[in-house]
Amino acid sequence: MIRVLIADDQPLVRRGLALILAPDPGIEVVGEAADGAEAVALAQELRPDVVVMDIRMPVLDGVAATARLAEVRPETRVLALSTFDMDEYVVAALRAGACGFLPKDVSPEELIAAVRTVHTGEAAVAPRLLTRLLSTYVRTVPREPRPAPATPDGLTPRELEIWRLLARGLDNAAIAAELDISVSTVKNHITAVFGKLGVRDRAQAVVAAYETGLVEAERRSG
């Protein structure tokens, strides 16, 4: 049973999400929050496995709430929601620790599948959607310089290549075909990459690739 907390400032949206999730026999909706601060408080009290988190909320927005949860309850996974699929706040949420992102107009089946996916610790963002989102964000949104969260230092040449292919949106099978190695070998390398970068999942690994300029450097040179 996956325990889910829903956080959205619109009561009708909260109710709609609950009506989608609650009938699934493997999901239990344990609570609803109207803002980010309430979401953090309820998560500590109710101990959900997954928080379905709207990004734009009063008091404490979804990005800040996600960062708080990463500190006080890291075992709870966050699935971020946004009205727009090309939204700079999505990247901020992933950087803060969200395990995935969905636009609010997804189908009920996609929402349920995403909740199940983030519960396993995987990223619930289609690799190509994530790459397109980050490409748009990096190209169009000016940002203040910030220290890179990770560097390629310590990665082997093979691990660096796999990180680059992952950031381009390739799944494990496509990476294996590209490099002519087995899928299990790809999985082992990805586990090593995650550990050396200090990231939790594919979403954060792609964010790190853009933050460090790995993907931008490849685009300029190619």
Automatic annotation (TrEMBL):
Location of the HTH luxR-type domain: 148-213
Domain Response regulatory: 3-119
Keyword set includes Kinase: no
CDD domains: LuxR_C_like, REC_NarL-like
Modified residues (4-aspartylphosphate): 54
UniProt keywords, alphabetically: DNA-binding, Phosphoprotein, Transcription, Transcription regulation
InterPro entries: CheY-like_superfamily (IPR011006), NreC/VraR/RcsB-like_REC (IPR058245), Sig_transdc_resp-reg_C-effctor (IPR016032), Sig_transdc_resp-reg_receiver (IPR001789), Tscrpt_reg_LuxR_C (IPR000792), WalR-like (IPR039420)
Domain of life from the UniProt record: Bacteria
Pfam families: GerE (PF00196), Response_reg (PF00072)
UniProt entry tagged with the keyword DNA-binding: yes
Stated name of the protein: Response regulator transcription factor
